[in-house]
Amino acid sequence: MQLDVINPLLDGRWEDLVAGHPDASVYHERGWIEALSRTYRYSSFVLTSTPAGQPLTNGLLLSLVSSIVTGKRLVSLPFSDHCEPLLSSGHDTETVGLFEKWLRAECERQRLRYVELRPRVAGDSVKSFLDKGPSYYLHTLDLRPALGQIFDGFHRDCIQRRIRHAERAGLSYETGDNNRLLDDFYALLTMTRRRHRLVPQPRSWFRNLLGCMGQKVRIRLARKEDVPIAAILTLAHRSSVVYKYGCSDARYHKLGAMPFLFWRLIEESKMGGTLEIDFGRTDLDNEGLIVFKDRLGTSKTLQTYLLCRPTGRRVRNYKWGFNLARQIVSVLPDVVLPWASRIVYRHAG
């Protein structure tokens, strides 16, 4: 058995594997990979033990991030909360052993800082040869119970009452993927990121997501008297929906627009046959966001990324640099933010 490297944007066998593999997610999909390539120029590939010309039975998806600022590394996958290695149960041990040998050799050959895998749940076979990386909480909501039961699982004061308050306040609601919604969403996103002293993602990233993923991307937006006050962006894959981005105008927080939007997301997802909403990863020290997601009745699990490093090389922590960047961004004029976003995110993957 030997390994092949294939291009997931050109080899249709990758789409077939993603369509049928139980561990595949929206982050494995061709549209997501293509949006990363168009926006950030990342080169992605799949490592597989399947011989050429045969249907894929396994694949490890990786992107090369090459930066003079943050170093050169392989990541599975940039800006993705999780991206499981897609393995076939009959050849797991042998395939994982080949992956290990290839990754270690590639670290040395390319002088990579590290290879980072982002499994949702790391199996023992994968963990056996990798070091532990950073950890996060991953929140998910089971949509199999009845809607009334799901609503009863919300925090009574912070979620249930705020949803009812938003309904009484007469908030209007719109969902879709048109340019007007994108414009309103991005204005709110820029406002929110500035409030948290963060650089907004480049606008081209969202245009490319809509262009590459089509109907799998949805923007949901709440308005008060035609003024956009809150929005969320979600991604769909089979029976799962991922909540990926959220933003709001702080002047209208008392109206409960964000709980209102999440309730509409839950209602529509349930009606569409979705079984789970993935609320994404949260930093362990972000207590406010953890509490908010907990109050939506979600379940949380500890998610630990995995690292493969060159012999004797330590992974430096660049968090101080990003904290400094946040301080600088907090005083930048709005006209400069699009330029800053194109630079910062290319190095942050």
Sheet bearing the most strands, described?
Answer: 12 strands, mixed
Order of secondary-structure elements: EHHEEEHEHEHHEHHEEEHEHEHH
- Give the helix/strand class: alpha+beta
> Judging from the principal axes of the Cα atoms, what is the shape?
globular
Number of helices: 12
Strand content bin:
25-35%
Strand order across the largest sheet? 1-2-3-4-5-12-6-11-10-9-8-7
Assembly context of the chains: single chain
Number of strands: 12
Description:
The structure is a single chain. With 349 residues, the chain is an alpha+beta fold. 39% of the residues lie in helices and 26% in strands. The chain has twelve helices and twelve strands. Strands 1-2-3-4-5-12-6-11-10-9-8-7 form a twelve-stranded mixed β-sheet. Helix 2 packs antiparallel against helix 8 (203-213). The radius of gyration is 21 Å and the shape is globular.
